[in-house]
Amino acid sequence: MNLKQEVYNVLKQLKDYGELDNLVIDSIDASKGDFCLPCFSLAKIMRKSPMMIADDIANSLNINGTTIEKIESVAGYVNFFLNKAKISESVLNNFNISRNQPNGKVVCIDYCSVNLAKYMHIGHLKNSFLGESLARLFENFGYKVVRINYIGDYGTPYGKIIAGIQMWGNDDDINTRGIDALQEYYVKFCAAEAEDENLQQLARDLSKKIEDKDSEIYPIYQKVIEIARKEAERLLDILGLHFDSWKGEASYANDVNKVVDMLDQKGLISISQGATIVDLSKFDMPPCLVKRSDGASIYASRDIAAAIDRYNDYKFDKMLYLTAVEQKLHFAQFFKVLELAGMPFSSGLEHISYGRFSLPNGKISSRRGKQAVLVDLIDYVLDKANDVIKNRTFNIENPKDVALKVAKGVLSFNALNIERNKDAIFDIERAFSFEGETAPYMQYTYTRVMSILRKAQGLNLDNIISDYSCLDQIQAFELIKMCCNLNNTLKLALDKRDPSIVLKYCMEMCKTLNKYYTVCKILDDNLPQVKAKLQLICLVKNVLSVAFNIICLETMEEM
Ligand code: ARG
Question: Which domains does the chain have, with CATH numbers?
């Protein structure tokens, strides 16, 4: 619902001004009305002062029978005041919260895309929640989304892990300690290899054997991948994140010659120092390397093969790739190559990068090497959430369940809270406060709504006719307006690829709602007004449910 439409409808009466709708903006403070039309840009065209134009417009509009209550001309602005009771009534009785119809379009989102040779880290948290939130935004607007976790399951790191297993490992240890054992061998091997050329050769030989599917080595590799993938799935499952495809880099390692042939047919290939490249100097970019001089495949050629494969599988309209900004050039290069190769889907490819996300130094201890990794962070946050919920003064029915939702909320909130491209430090202690701009604050606000609605169930309002006049109160009407902005907010977040816009929207709504409770008793004796207020609270709840879901924030009955 777009309340500006009410103003547009009135502006249609004007014939001499051309298109004015685009000039209408939200008023900054309620004393200046709900919307205003600044007349400054009209002054040149009309050859009149903005003050005179605003006077003329205000005087010539007829608002009888409309939802506009008053029009004022002040210092070059035309201010529009909505009839709050009328608008509230119409919004509360007509608001349609259902999501958009399927639009027949497909979006692939390549996110998380964890390198299985290493522990997941805090960067994956940012990446994964951004990807998931964008996925939900696209779904909200009717797209079919394919979630792809393009795992890093290829390359010399696996040769090194296997070398480490052969030197120090045994099945028992791997089976019991899983990923921790593998990571330990990997780190140990990397240290040893730095001093010993023979070990470097060993790792290369083993990597080659993996590629050749050697009967002895390949099964070990498969086991390594299985263990690492299970752990990644376990962590992502705690976060509530699930993927449609886990097809990783290794699946495309053998496509390098196919890719080179295809590019060669289009006359794009040249050889430079033995390596196969696509020259991109015309586009101010370094050449895109597609095949190494030893014939091995390269990150870019695997990505080219993967993009073609995904187009064949999903016929996507768009494909988004989420990575840290460091990979910007890689994406620009292979997107260009696909464009030059005339791939029909190349214009739908998009790289989405984001700012650095980190913990304050030494905040969380790690059992696993120098830096805290994702599993440490998740454990820490889960423990802390359990403590917080245990210390609540009243009995909660499912404390474990509530604590898990709080923990997940703290993680998604902090991953999405800051504008996508800005750097952020995760202030993990403050994150659990029930006050200030935090996830628990928002979740708690929601439980307050639920509690009011529960209490209201005791009232018999069936035969009561709502009295909307009480909704002209400032915060009440703010809430009405905010609800009407849901769709625009989601659209803006989608267009900017930035869920932080939705998070801010939720936060403002929660703050306004809490303010509303302090100035207005919802359940008083005036039942017609109670009914109207409850309709408002109910709408706010439904809007918050939709918006919370987009930012991966779960709701509960109590906390
Ligand atoms: N696995 C890569 C990394 O950890 C990210 C992959 C991103 N997706 C892609 N299609 N290249 O850096």
Answer: 3-82 (3.30.1360.70), 106-153+248-354 (3.40.50.620), 156-238 (no CATH), 374-550 (1.10.730.10)
